[in-house]
Specification:
The protein is α/β, with parallel strands linked by helices. It folds into two domains: 184 residues, 3-Layer(aba) Sandwich (D-Maltodextrin-Binding Protein, domain 2), CATH 3.40.190.10; 138 residues, D-Maltodextrin-Binding Protein, domain 2 (3-Layer(aba) Sandwich), CATH 3.40.190. It has ten helices and ten strands. It comes from Streptomyces liliifuscus.
Length: 330
């Protein structure tokens, strides 16, 4: 790979340019029917500013409001998956992006002792767990982090919970063997530059702008995580968790290419009482406007595979989404 892959190009190649044009026109045609389409306000919990959850959420909001002018989408930045599920539970959000692994935990675990009812609109993309240290660090594996301060992601993020499991899988006790901080990504990057944090973990698309800046100066080393995968399973092991081995793309960062890490699928979820018309509209958007929903700096094949949208693990699709998928694909 000579440079960043344009995911829009890949999607056009996969679907066929003519098919994409026809499908895009079909979504526009939905708004010209006699039925006025869904209306109201949709509160969308995303993620940290400048990260991929927020970027994807804003693209969805823009496309949704263009296709359905009577629907207003308010994007809310948050710490991430755990906070987003709490917002859905407390009826302070209508729609959210979450790691599949965290959505599974919301069905009743120590993280969410009382199950949170969720439905999925679709599996939208795959993020990469990126555990980094400075390039001049002696640390070359997670097991080498004993005595080193790490940031495992902001409190309320899916990465924070996964990060503790990663340390345990490497034989380390968070807070005892490894001093742990939970910093927002921008603060963690500043702390790494200052030397007060030796490593940071983030779950996100590649490349992440914050990590790209760190890779330029002071330089980064990406720790391999795939070997820890068998020990990361929750109550049902890896079944339905959305965790799998992936390889960082060669063009993502200067020296990360080929590092085997863990991929985590991401779901667009809602409460079960989301109106069917809204679920239908969202589903059609994901299918028919896939190429418009990819942040500009995405590389590789991590985004919105039309064929895998229904692969939502143990989280059932919303009935409105089911009807839309059947209408579009038979």
């Amino acid at each position: 790979m000579n440079g960043p892959v344009d995911r829009r190009t890949l999607l056009h190649a996969a679907l066929g340019t003519a098919a994409v044009a026809v499908l895009g026109g079909a979504l526009t045609a939905d708004t010209s029917r006699q039925r006025p389409g869904p209306s109201g306000v949709l509160r969308f919990a995303t993620g940290e500013p400048t990260a991929f959850y927020e970027a994807f959420g804003r693209l969805v909001a823009t496309e949704l409001e263009t296709a359905y002018p009577r629907l207003s989408c308010r994007v809310r930045t948050t710490a991430g998956s755990v906070t987003n599920i709490e917002l859905l539970r407390d009826r302070r959000a209508d729609l959210a992006l979450v790691l599949t692994d965290t959505a599974q935990a919301a069905q009743g675990t120590a993280l969410f002792p009382h199950p949170v009812p969720l439905c999925a609109i679709g599996r939208v993309y795959e993020t990469y767990l990126q555990f980094v240290v400075r390039a001049d660090s002696p640390v070359r594996a997670v097991s080498d982090l004993a005595g080193h301060t790490v940031s495992l992601g902001a409190t309320g993020s899916g990465a924070a919970e996964l990060g503790e499991r990663i340390l345990h899988a490497a034989g380390l006790s968070p807070g005892t063997d490894v001093p742990v901080r939970h910093l927002p990504l921008a603060d963690a990057a500043d702390a790494m530059r200052a030397g007060s944090v030796d490593a940071l973990l983030v779950a996100g698309g590649v490349p992440l702008p914050v990590l790209t800046e760190l890779d330029d100066s002071p330089g980064l080393r990406f720790l391999p995580l795939a070997g820890l995968l068998p020990r990361l399973g929750g109550r049902d092991g890896l079944a339905g968790s959305g965790l799998e081995e992936v390889t960082l793309p060669q063009s993502a960062y200067r020296t990360a290419g080929g590092v085997a890490t863990v991929g985590v699928s991401n779901l667009l979820v809602c409460r079960p009482d989301l109106p069917r018309a809204v679920a239908d509209a969202l589903t059609r958007l994901l299918v028919l406007r896939a190429t418009a929903l990819v942040p500009d700096n995405a590389v590789g094949t991590q985004f919105l595979d039309v064929g895998s949208l229904i692969g939502t693990g143990g989280i059932a699709l919303h009935p409105g989404a089911v009807a839309a998928y059947r209408s579009l694909h038979g």
